[in-house]
Amino acid sequence: MNSSFIEAKPILEKLISSGYQAFYVGGSVRDLLLEREIGDVDIATSAKPNEIKKLFRKTIDVGAEHGTIIVLHNETPYEVTTFRTETEYEDFRRPKSVSFISSLKEDLKRRDFTINAMAMDIDGEIIDYFNGKEDLYNKHIQTVGKASERFTEDALRMLRAVRFVSQLSFSLSFTTQIAIRDHAHLLESISTERKVIEIEKLLSGNSFQEAVKLLLECEVYSFLPGLVHKQDELNNLLVFDFTLITNREELWTTISYFIKPISVEAFLRSWKLPVKLIKAVEKNLNYLQLLLNGQTWTKLLIYEAGIDAALSAERIYSLLGDGGTLEVNLNTVKSLYKSLPIKDKKDLNITGKEIIEVMKKQPGPWVTKAINAIEIAILMDELENNRVAIKEWLLSCNQNFEQSY
Ligand code: ATP
Ligand code: MG
């Protein structure tokens, strides 16, 4: 058995020895059979949330009313969920009520796709009531039960289906595609937070092109924030190799670059992204635009950008070209950055207080200007970053630093 499952085994052992049923379920079982890297190992059990809490020393109650308790085992969190059915759904998204049940089969039946509806027992035996294995073999994403019903219950499943197309390079049957097209509008009722997770995974998958084509063909895109009428822009994005993107900031910079919203900030806000991420994207876009305008990296520019924004802008810029020189270009940025005598204002070997003493002047805005001038002189290799040299330079350059730089 794979080590991720062996590590979680004591949780199953404890549940079973206490008289409950317990199984590995969902994505980890799928990924084991696909020989993909195993993500989170989730566990389903007949034990009720309060019973789970009693059995384990360290638990976190993340949603006991829905049956989920996190069990911390060797510092690793595991989601342990009570077998449940989701009876009625409200607003095409959340179940109105969940009922705890004792049947694994019923629990697996409520899951989205056959490939995600398999379980594995403690001995590694696969339990497959809905032909998940066969669909894995055929590379098919198929809902458990009728697609239109399952998408009506929870519209996010449509986006998840397309996300799995991207991540697994699987296909959707024609009827599933039709069901997505017919129900795409229900995505309006889904929270943006849930959509973000799926869209980020979708664009990071190996077959993102197929997935984006499906978003277009099934008109899902119209029900995603800021993408109404953006079919041409989404089509343009197909040529970009998203698999070489290395973080969320770069991902959203690239999306924003292609989508060309009137306001990047408003677009990113409509996706409810954190302010810090939005700021980083705006910064990346700024340097990307400079590169697109023909600007090359100078010491000053790279210092101002900082290494993260410089590398991200360079990566996206290179990938917008043929990408062939990506590594060379990134290395150029890295070595230029490495050669900077200072990386930050705080690397300066002088303080504002010392500058005031040397210049024998009253403190005022001129101090900041003096610091800026010192910074530039050091970056331009006109001045060495040591206290004595800087003091001499201040006295000899004979400026009052009143004008701005
Ligand atoms: P990943 O590897 O990206 O985590 P996953 O399949 O594990 O993929 P999760 O979101 O972690 O996806 O969900 C765990 C399991 O819960 C799924 O495999 C599936 O069985 C079930 N599941 C998740 N979301 C839904 C949903 N919206 N409707 C029905 N079942 C779902
Ligand atoms: Mg998972």
Automatic annotation (TrEMBL):
<dbReference type="InterPro" id="IPR032828">
    <property type="entry name" value="PolyA_RNA-bd"/>
</dbReference>
<feature type="binding site">
    <location>
        <position position="154"/>
    </location>
    <ligand>
        <name>ATP</name>
    </ligand>
</feature>
<dbReference type="GO" id="GO:0160016">
    <property type="term" value="F:CCACCA tRNA nucleotidyltransferase activity"/>
</dbReference>
<feature type="binding site">
    <location>
        <position position="157"/>
    </location>
    <ligand>
        <name>ATP</name>
    </ligand>
</feature>
<keyword id="KW-0479">Metal-binding</keyword>
<keyword id="KW-0692">RNA repair</keyword>
<feature type="binding site">
    <location>
        <position position="30"/>
    </location>
    <ligand>
        <name>ATP</name>
    </ligand>
</feature>
<dbReference type="GO" id="GO:0001680">
    <property type="term" value="P:tRNA 3'-terminal CCA addition"/>
</dbReference>
<dbReference type="InterPro" id="IPR002646">
    <property type="entry name" value="PolA_pol_head_dom"/>
</dbReference>
<keyword id="KW-0548">Nucleotidyltransferase</keyword>
<feature type="binding site">
    <location>
        <position position="27"/>
    </location>
    <ligand>
        <name>ATP</name>
    </ligand>
</feature>
<feature type="binding site">
    <location>
        <position position="42"/>
    </location>
    <ligand>
        <name>Mg(2+)</name>
    </ligand>
</feature>
<dbReference type="InterPro" id="IPR032810">
    <property type="entry name" value="CCA-adding_enz_C"/>
</dbReference>
<dbReference type="InterPro" id="IPR050264">
    <property type="entry name" value="Bact_CCA-adding_enz_type3_sf"/>
</dbReference>
<dbReference type="GO" id="GO:0000287">
    <property type="term" value="F:magnesium ion binding"/>
</dbReference>
<feature type="binding site">
    <location>
        <position position="27"/>
    </location>
    <ligand>
        <name>CTP</name>
    </ligand>
</feature>
<keyword id="KW-0460">Magnesium</keyword>
<feature type="binding site">
    <location>
        <position position="163"/>
    </location>
    <ligand>
        <name>CTP</name>
    </ligand>
</feature>
<feature type="domain" description="Poly A polymerase head">
    <location>
        <begin position="23"/>
        <end position="141"/>
    </location>
</feature>
<feature type="binding site">
    <location>
        <position position="40"/>
    </location>
    <ligand>
        <name>Mg(2+)</name>
    </ligand>
</feature>
<dbReference type="Pfam" id="PF13735">
    <property type="entry name" value="tRNA_NucTran2_2"/>
</dbReference>
<dbReference type="GO" id="GO:0000049">
    <property type="term" value="F:tRNA binding"/>
</dbReference>
<dbReference type="GO" id="GO:0004810">
    <property type="term" value="F:CCA tRNA nucleotidyltransferase activity"/>
</dbReference>
<dbReference type="GO" id="GO:0042245">
    <property type="term" value="P:RNA repair"/>
</dbReference>
<dbReference type="Pfam" id="PF01743">
    <property type="entry name" value="PolyA_pol"/>
</dbReference>
<feature type="binding site">
    <location>
        <position position="154"/>
    </location>
    <ligand>
        <name>CTP</name>
    </ligand>
</feature>
<keyword id="KW-0067">ATP-binding</keyword>
<dbReference type="Pfam" id="PF12627">
    <property type="entry name" value="PolyA_pol_RNAbd"/>
</dbReference>
<comment type="similarity">
    <text>Belongs to the tRNA nucleotidyltransferase/poly(A) polymerase family. Bacterial CCA-adding enzyme type 3 subfamily.</text>
</comment>
<feature type="binding site">
    <location>
        <position position="111"/>
    </location>
    <ligand>
        <name>CTP</name>
    </ligand>
</feature>
<protein>
    <recommendedName>
        <fullName>CCA-adding enzyme</fullName>
        <ecNumber>2.7.7.72</ecNumber>
    </recommendedName>
</protein>
<feature type="binding site">
    <location>
        <position position="163"/>
    </location>
    <ligand>
        <name>ATP</name>
    </ligand>
</feature>
<comment type="function">
    <text>Catalyzes the addition and repair of the essential 3'-terminal CCA sequence in tRNAs without using a nucleic acid template. Adds these three nucleotides in the order of C, C, and A to the tRNA nucleotide-73, using CTP and ATP as substrates and producing inorganic pyrophosphate. tRNA 3'-terminal CCA addition is required both for tRNA processing and repair. Also involved in tRNA surveillance by mediating tandem CCA addition to generate a CCACCA at the 3' terminus of unstable tRNAs. While stable tRNAs receive only 3'-terminal CCA, unstable tRNAs are marked with CCACCA and rapidly degraded.</text>
</comment>
<dbReference type="GO" id="GO:0005524">
    <property type="term" value="F:ATP binding"/>
</dbReference>
<comment type="subunit">
    <text>Homodimer.</text>
</comment>
<feature type="binding site">
    <location>
        <position position="160"/>
    </location>
    <ligand>
        <name>ATP</name>
    </ligand>
</feature>
<feature type="binding site">
    <location>
        <position position="30"/>
    </location>
    <ligand>
        <name>CTP</name>
    </ligand>
</feature>
<keyword id="KW-0547">Nucleotide-binding</keyword>
<dbReference type="InterPro" id="IPR043519">
    <property type="entry name" value="NT_sf"/>
</dbReference>
<feature type="binding site">
    <location>
        <position position="111"/>
    </location>
    <ligand>
        <name>ATP</name>
    </ligand>
</feature>
<keyword id="KW-0694">RNA-binding</keyword>
<feature type="domain" description="tRNA nucleotidyltransferase/poly(A) polymerase RNA and SrmB- binding">
    <location>
        <begin position="170"/>
        <end position="227"/>
    </location>
</feature>
